[in-house]
Amino acid sequence: MNTPLPYKHIQDLSERQLLQVIVDKLCCVAGKYILDIYGGAAAAYSLRSLSKDTIDVVRVRRSVDNAEADFTAREITNGTLENWVNADMPLPLDTATAAAAYSLRNLKTSYTGSVIRVRRSSDNAEADFTAAEVADGTLEDWVNTDVDVYTSDFTSGNEDLNEENGVATDGETIDGVSDAYKFTLTGGSGFHSARKLNFLDTTKTYRVTFDYYLPSSNTSVDGLFYFNSVGSNETFNTLDEWVTITKEGACTNDDFWIRATDGGNQTVDADGDVFYLKNIVVTQTTADGHVTTWYDQAGSNDATQGTAANQPKIVDAGVLVEENGRPALEFTTSTSTEMLTSASGTYSQPNTYFIIAKNNNVNSDFIDGSILVDRNLNDISSGFHRMFAGLSFQSTFPNTANQFLRYSLFDGASSEIAIDAASVETGDVGLQGLEKSFRIGDNTSAFLMQEIIIYNSDQSSNRTTIETNINDYYSIYAQDRDGFVTTWYDQSGNGNNAVQNTATQQPQIVSAGVLVEENGKPAIDFGTILENKCLTVNTSPITNNFVTIVHNIIYKNNKNQVLLALSNSNYIIITATDAGKLKYVNSNDDMISTTNVGSFQLSTIDINDGKLYTNNLEEDNVTTASGATSRYVIGNYTGTSGNELEGYVSEIVTWQTAQTSNRVGIETNINNHYNIYP
């Protein structure tokens, strides 16, 4: 609270509050604080410090989790408030204890284990990987490790190529090189080829190397044509010496072919002509990575798949599978991809699920009981998100081609579902729990899955926190980080704190993560985005004699806007009929400005002297004005809709004492801070 602070209570302050006190006490020497120079204030609201005794100036609620905190003037301007509004939410498993949790990122601060085990398609080797290794390229590099898928051995009796119109012998020696492969043409006119068939994957890349030798003693054969494999087709014509050839790139055919040519022609009639091959090595340079185990970060109920054909893919043709820039597991109907857990027992309701995926099929089962007995089925049925636990509850949330965050609470007739942080739909799903030996995916499902978290409890109260953390990582939907004022502290020491407990009526101080400012200074938005925002406090009947307000109000020709209400009869208003003029309505004589609102300005109402000023210029005067006050309502008349303000307010100060002789000094102090007018 903001009451005069005896030094004997310094030890009771937090570090941040103590710093504010030290700064303010030092600044006081220079006469900075307006309330210390001009006493007698009844209520004082600002986002700067107005007194040496001021600590916190405002209390703010952040939208992502509805947490609240107090802030000093210094913390508003030095980034502390913005950082707090934009703060990372705790990881899902730090927020609450989960029953099972699967992800390609760490879900708990203390988790250091592997997140997946992967099988490499090129040689079926397996290895574990942490979240960091999945993201930093280690997994891809391992999957794409060079693996020799074929190495020739042409020692005697080991020749394993397939011949087209030719006879092969191994263990041959030519030009000083032994253990060579010799191909002798037979069959007259036609194609004459040495081949290795059906062993390459046309979705991968390879490097092929081999040595060849063509003798000049051939009657017709003077070249070898390499084709239908890795790299570009090419004819080689060097004679009477061994030549090494290397080809690398995408695979266009699953065979390796070398064909004899005559003057570039592939149809050759030269029975008895020969060519030689040696050191054929085919190296696979990219591969697929298939997940054999998705580790449970909440316990030991790992999801596994031992059948290679049914394992989801995480690296496809050498490239990490991703959705929206984050790693994902690919489940497909063509391979009946699924993963199974094996724990015994049942997770009885209530159960809460958070699922991050992108569905690629009309119907897909994300999670279900493996033997279809105890079921908490999270699926898409006929194009809509559905829940089933004995009874079917089909939502109106449609399947789209987009990544989504799904929240499902299985709790009988009070079950809930929502997509991408939308408002929940409720329904009855039945009372079945989820058997702990559940499955992820099945033979009807096609989706990219990134994260599944299961809580054996109702986590609706933590939903916003968990979803915010998830969305901050995956960037699935737009989510503004906003800060709303719940209390604007009275710096006068009179305890007239202006409060708004209803979230939908709280004015805004941080919008989309950025501090609201006017003219480069912090301000509070009372309704430029959403209307019906106000802060109120009831006070004992007093008489105000002097009011200063720093504001920027948007004129509306179809509504009256109350800037500050002091009582039923006394209030500052911008009416629809006054064409943008600010008026002080009171029980005696009203005062009205000649300057239109709509710009950053200082309005001064000297009730004692019966004068109204805008930016230090007198614009109206009356014989008598009333300052009777029974309440302070900032941004409305009584705190209910109908006279809502649409504009920004940076500071409001009301004085009980007459300040006519101090007006210039007060306005100068304000203008020196806000730079409102020359």
List keywords for this structure.
single chain; 678 residues; mainly beta; Jelly Rolls; 7-stranded antiparallel beta sheet; 10% helix
Compose a concise summary of this entry.
The chain is mostly beta strands. Helices cover 10% and strands 41% of the residues.
Structure description:
The chain is mainly beta and 678 residues long. The protein has three domains: 7-83 and 484-674, Jelly Rolls (Sandwich); 93-142 and 289-474, Jelly Rolls (Sandwich), CATH 2.60.120; 149-284, Sandwich (Jelly Rolls), CATH 2.60.120. Helix content is 10%, strand content 41%. It is built from nine helices and 55 strands. Strands 1, 44, 46, 51, 52, 53 and 55 form a seven-stranded antiparallel beta sheet that branches. Strands 4, 24, 27, 32, 33, 34 and 37 form a seven-stranded antiparallel beta sheet that branches. Strands 2, 3, 38, 39, 40 and 41 form a six-stranded antiparallel beta sheet that branches. A hairpin with a 5-residue loop joins strand 5 and strand 6. The protein is elongated and about 125 Å long. It starts with 14 loop residues before the first helix and ends with a helix. Mean pLDDT is 93; it is low at 1-12.
